[in-house]
Amino acid sequence: MDEISVAKPDTASMLRVNQAGEFGATRIYDGQRAIMGNRQPISRLIARMATQEEAHRIHFDRMMAERGVRPTLLTPVWNVAGFALGAATALIGPEAAMACTAAIETEIDRHYGVQLDELGDHDPELARTITEFRAEEVEHRDTAIAAGAEDAPGFPLLSAAIRFGCRAAIALSKRI
Ligand SMILES: [Fe+2]
Ligand SMILES: [Fe+2]
């Protein structure tokens, strides 16, 4: 299986899945803000994280345009699923909304770590971008935990379900 270890990383697929994820993140926060409005104590945290996700998405949009990489065909699915996940967790309560962020960002930290390992010295522009965004995703995870994510009702099950969904979404967006 030496071919695999010397194969060039599929950077088009990486951009596609990353753009999908950042888009999904903006939709999760859209759903949470639609339910919670601006009056919850965590609203400012969410607004700040949502702004960063938007910047991440715009950056990947630009890189894809420059390189002629098409977006995932699943964008309409992530549009609805992201919003629904955000709204559902916000309806449970602020801690569940934060549990959603903590679960997602745990998976994204791992996902971006895997991509950086695969990239190695290939594509320094993409590697720099992923490194920068990954640090912000880890900040989001820590922010969410500090804001009570682990106090959400049924946290272990909720977290496991969201992490499973996130991994499935990553796997699909790489390929479709
Ligand atoms: Fe992000
Ligand atoms: Fe994030």
Detailed description of the structure:
- The chain is mostly helical.
- 82% of the residues lie in helices and 0% in strands.
- The protein contains 7 helices and no strands.
- The radius of gyration is 16 Å and the shape is globular.
- The mean pLDDT is 93.
- Bound molecules: fe (ii) ion (2 copies).
Structural features:
176 residues; mainly alpha; 7 helices; globular; binds fe (ii) ion
The rounded Rg comes to 16 Å
Query: How many DSSP-defined strands?
Result: 0
SSE pattern, N- to C-terminal: HHHHHHH
Biggest sheet architecture: none
Structural class: mainly alpha
Given as residue ranges, the uncertain stretches (5+ residues, pLDDT < 50) are none
Strand content: under 5%
Count of separate DSSP helical elements: 7
Shape: globular
Please bin the fraction of helical residues.
over 70%
Overall mean pLDDT score?
93
Terminal CA distance: 25 Å
Bound molecules: fe (ii) ion
